[in-house]
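Annotators were shown the component list below and the corresponding predicted structure, then asked to write short factual statements about the assembly.
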Amino acid sequence: MIAVEHLVKRFGDVVAVDDVSFEVGEGEIVALLGPNGAGKTTTIKSILNLMVPDSGRITIGGRVVKPGDHWLYRHISGVLEGNRNIYWRLTVEQNLQFFVGLSGKWVARRDRERLLERFGLLERRGQEARKLSRGMQQKLAVLCVLVRGTDYIVLDEPTLGLDVDTTYQLADMIRFMKDSGRTLLVSSHNMKFVERIADRVVFINRGRVVAQGGVDELRRMFAFRTYSIRVVGRGNPGQLFPDARVEQKENAHVIHISLEPEHLYDVVDKLRSHGFLLEEIRRDEPDLEEIYLKVIGGEA
Amino acid sequence: MNLVRALLIREIQLLRSYAFNTVSGIITVVIIFLILLLGVRYALPGSGGMGNTEEAMVVAFFLWSWLLGGLNTLTWGITMEAQQGTLEQLYMSPYGFRVVSILMLGISIISNLAFSVPLLVILMLISGRFLHIDVATVSVLLFFMVLPAYGLGYVFGGMALLYKRIQNVFQVINMGVVGLFMLPDSFPWNLIPFTSGYHLISRAMRQGIGLTHLPPAELSTFIATSILFFLGGLWIYGLLEKRVKRLGILGHY
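Structure shown to annotators:
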């Protein structure tokens, strides 16, 4: 398990990380979500012991990380945002050999080929990394972390600048890592990607954790406020509810409205009194992007 | 062992990739040497001391290129790793950056030799001054000569991480090394390993004096100061690295 407890990091007067606490359980994929400058990278660099926090405690696999420790890299590795993380003048295969060797290990040729084939890099094995597309380079960087064989993997904004197709391939890589028993902490702005991979989400804004929980748990938590009500009748029901969004679907109207559950009956009564016939009431489940906007937007 | 193998493969590949850079570096030093050689020959026509001067020039140019290789390995090495975004990956080795960087230095001797040995041969051919090359003696002296350069490399590498732009200071140091060769071979100057090392190697290469025949006091002072410079550099790097990690700017460039 990775445990972050009361982490604080200041840069002069700016508090980049302010009392951040969360855990990444064994075998879990936890996504760290937040706007630019929220403190995600600072938190990640602190976990990887590449930055010394002002206070707080980080434990990896039950052992406390202290400044200057390097035992942790037997257990944890990572890909950092904005960095190449790989050598552009080395070929795909040489990069793989180098990074696994950096951890004191070696991968047999057959296993290397199998991995490269699994992630669509086999045909490029002899090509210098600088000649690969951005997506291929990112896949290679993640693969170079994977071959190090650590139990915990941290990926900082791995989808930055990637197209949809490569993002899905990367999500597939991350699920593969989880299936092979790894624990992952991933920061990203890409909500669709996070929805695809994450078991739990930690929302961070202005250096503080503002919400956290399982993806389904968060959906439930934010779901009760939004309803879709399908009605048939004359006129526009939108005029009755100025805050609602109304769609016309064939001969019916669908009203999307945010309200507390106890007010639902009032809405139904109002519709009926204006001659509308109720066809369906459905509680909407917001996607992660809507939850993000609610959580972070509410903070802004 | 796997770590050494990985670093070795990387060094050889990068050496191959930057072969043009190595060749153009040799050509540049040779051109500077030729200009100075012609200058000496025209300035001192028929001088009895010309042979000695030319021999001294060959030794100085060879040692200069050797030391620059040592200084550059870490200073530019760390800067380049930070620029290309791979420094943090080196830090994430379970062996720690100290071990990784020391092994990198050991392996970089290959590329350093690939530059300096052909250069020495070319300089001897151009000047017609053939020096004594007792491989054992020269190897030992060259090793202890480059050790303090590695120490300085750590200091400047750490400064590059902290202050980012140190090219101007580093250029002065690069040129200043030659100046240290000119200092007298006596106390306190012989406490600078670049100075004492130059005089010892000069004697070994110009007069053919073997390692066992070099003055033991001078030799041991040279070795001791060389090791001290290296360890001192490593220690200063540790201090700078702590500061860099507190500021959170490791890998920023």
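Statements collected:
1. The two ends of chain B are 31 Å apart (CA to CA).
2. The longest helix of chain B spans residues 50-84.
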